[in-house]
Amino acid sequence: GLCCPGRDPACLSLGWRPDGSHGPCYCDQACARTLDCCHDYAEACPVIPCVVSQWSVWSGCAEPCKTTYRVRRRHVIQEPRNGGEACPPLEERAGCVEYWTQQGTECKQSLIPALITTGGFGKARKKRAAADSNERAGYCVEFQLVAITPGCLQSHHSYTHWMQYLREGHTVCVECQHPALDSRSLHCYGDGSGSKKNQLLHWQAVGNTQCKGTWKRIRQLDTCSCPSVHSFLFI
């Protein structure tokens, strides 16, 4: 009739042990490790693992007009018992950007961090878009890098090597191409349009959340003229 969680020396009985000897035996969870369980422990105290529900749908972004997160949750259907497998995490978060306020108006561009990646991906975009003659033409924005987090230099994956070329004070070019070019506003989110002169704007690298910083918008051009290591794309 005993079945005790954890280690409990008082959870003691008298009976047969698994090795065939007779005498004091235990019915606590620790007996499986110390090998002094009563012979019927496994049947009387079966291992019951944690059982959780399916994930809920993802929530909306935590806050509009900034890079935040969204959440999904699940709940415990059955608690673990008798040394059963512990419950997994019940909440997950993922990065999220919402470009519209709760009132349905578009966010001010200066509030939105620009999400950028290396300009090398632009060649593939142009090939896919070549057949679409109705596509709107893109543009380029020059920025002066003001601040860069140390995380940009700690990118060791092949797809993040481009971040190591970012240097404070350098001028960089960022292209706004389809599909990042919004069909309603005719600009890319985070391009700094509407910002004041010399206003500090925020950017974040895609592929490494630790690589981000600030820059100042210099001007908008039809085409980019920066070297390839300083040429990027809006996402």
TrEMBL record:
Keyword Disulfide bond: yes
PROSITE patterns referenced in this protein's UniProt entry, alphabetically: SMB_1 (PS00524), SMB_2 (PS50958), TSP1 (PS50092)
Domain SMB: 1-50
Keyword Glycoprotein carried by entry: yes
Annotated keywords: Disulfide bond, Glycoprotein, Signal
Name this polypeptide is given: SBSPO protein
Taxonomy of the source species: Eukaryota, Metazoa, Chordata, Craniata, Vertebrata
